[in-house]
Amino acid sequence: MKKTTAVLLVAVLAIVLGSAAVATMDMQKDMNAKYPTAKAKCASCHVKAMAKKGDAEVNAFGKDMMKFVIDPKAEKKTFDWAKLEPLDSDGDGKSNLDEFKAGTNPGVK
Ligand SMILES: [Ca+2]
Predict the structure, then answer these.
(1) CA 43–ligand 1 middle distance (angstroms)
(2) DSSP state, 79?
(3) What is the chain's mean pLDDT, rounded?
């Protein structure tokens, strides 16, 4: 019985951790669909490239993205890109849109 409980717990953890990673991958896909030149990757929004659950600290651009979530209760997050584009999240003098076009990271100077 204990072994069954352990297996079940591992399965539940895998689903929970996996769904967080899938959510992030969906955001990345959406960003790349809208801005193909941005070449969005994990480090576009996160401090660590391969962020794990509980260690998914976001950079300045990731923080700005969270300010412009259209429906915070929606399972799949969408963002108000029109409000994100003119910002200079990382403070390097280039707008997020200019960084998307140039393929540079909008969250790191
Ligand atoms: Ca910038």
Answers:
(1) 14
(2) B
(3) 86
The number of helix segments (H) and strand segments (E) in the chain equals 5, 0
Structure tokens at 53: 């659950």
> What is the CA(62)–ligand 1 centre distance, in A?
12
- Take residue 83 and report the two structure tokens written for it: 């409000």
**From ligand 1's centre to the CA of 12, what distance in Å?**
39
Are the C-beta atoms of residues 84 and 65 closer than 8 Å to each other?
A: yes
Per DSSP, helices labelled H in 36-80 are: 42-45, 60-67
Mean pLDDT check: name the lowest of 9-18, 43-52, 99-108. 9-18
Report how far ligand 1's centroid is from the alpha carbon of 102 (Å).
11
Evaluate if residue 70 carries a pLDDT over 60: yes
Ligand 1 center–CA 61 separation, angstroms: 9
In angstroms, the Cα distances linking 12 to 19, 87, 88 are 11, 39, 39
Say what the pTM is: 0.77
